[in-house]
Hints:
Blueprint: E1 22-23, E2 30-31, E3 36-39, E4 45-47, E5 51-53, E6 59-61, E7 65-75, E8 81-89
Parallel strand pairs: 4-8
Antiparallel strand pairs: 1-3, 2-7, 3-6, 5-6, 7-8
Amino acid sequence: MSKVKAGGSSKNIHKSPGQRLGVKRFGGQTVRKGEVLVRQTGATKIAGEGTYISKNFTIHADKDGVVEFKKVKKGLFTGKTAPRTQVLVK
Length: 90
């Protein structure tokens, strides 16, 4: 006979909240300096003119203006190019 009852499997035990990632200000919206434009994991979108990227890859507005999104090709370390979205404030 077993000395311990069956442990079983536990589901839904992860209680960490969502990170609230995504685009916070869309194209054509006016922004002020320092506002968060995009929260992301990794550099899926890249910072362009009038923006800067912080330590956790969040893109902020560097000046007051209007948000724009532009498709660009980014050169990778291997020599390949990958499509990326560039965030601009003009």
